[in-house]
Amino acid sequence: MGMAVLIRHGESQWNLENRFTGWVDVPLSPRGEEEAKKAGAKLKGYRFDVAFVSALKRAQDTLAIVLRELNQTDIPTYQDQALNERHYGDLQGLNKAETAQKFGEQQVKIWRRSFDIKPPGGESLKDTAERVLPYYEANIKPHIVAGRSVIIAAHGNSLRALVMHLDRLTPEQVLELNIPTGAPLLYEFDSAGVPLAHRYL
């Protein structure tokens, strides 16, 4: 039976500063490194065959810390920008409180949480899903169908897009979906790659 663990990177320097990060390649904060270590501790006893990670340093560092905690740094690892955080366009680098003052709190909430409304110059969650899901189907799911154990280190919105697909959530349901940092989310699959159960560790 195939298995996948999804992990959202630990707190980054810009999460700490409450800024929109998107594709800007900011490092983990010390707390984020700690969160990644704790995630590794929660995964003790699990053995992974293959890892997938975005092209951004905060996800790569999270994965590296987790695999180091598990003494599994030698597993094949594939990196792709298809798993990157959604691109926040003109909001990238702006403090979230300032953005709310500038555009209005309601508008910012719509950009952050709605399914198909893009922030100026950026991607909607729908756009993010349109790169995450084909990559998942072509590159990750075959490992799961083959009965392997996979770990995916990515971002709040790229993982929301994937969970929406795996759990068959509606655009309304995904609005309320929030994936915590550094909390491993374990999925078990049947031999066709259909999710049977999932839980946070």
Give the rounded overall mean pLDDT.
96
Q: Low-confidence segments, ≥5 residues, pLDDT <50?
A: none
Largest sheet, spatial ordering of strands: 3-2-4-1-5-6
Give helix % range.
40-55%
From the N-terminal CA to the C-terminal CA, the straight-line distance is 18 Å
Tally of helical runs: 8
What order do the helices and strands follow? EHHEHEHHHEHHEE
Question: How many structural domains?
Answer: 1
CATH homology superfamily = Phosphoglycerate mutase-like
Q: Which structural category do the helix and sheet elements fall into?
A: alpha/beta
CATH class: Alpha Beta
Protein name: 2,3-bisphosphoglycerate-dependent phosphoglycerate mutase
Function: Catalyzes the interconversion of 2-phosphoglycerate and 3-phosphoglycerate.
InterPro entries: His_Pase_superF_clade-1, His_PPase_superfam, PG/BPGM_mutase_AS, Phosphogly_mut1
Site (Transition state stabilizer): 155
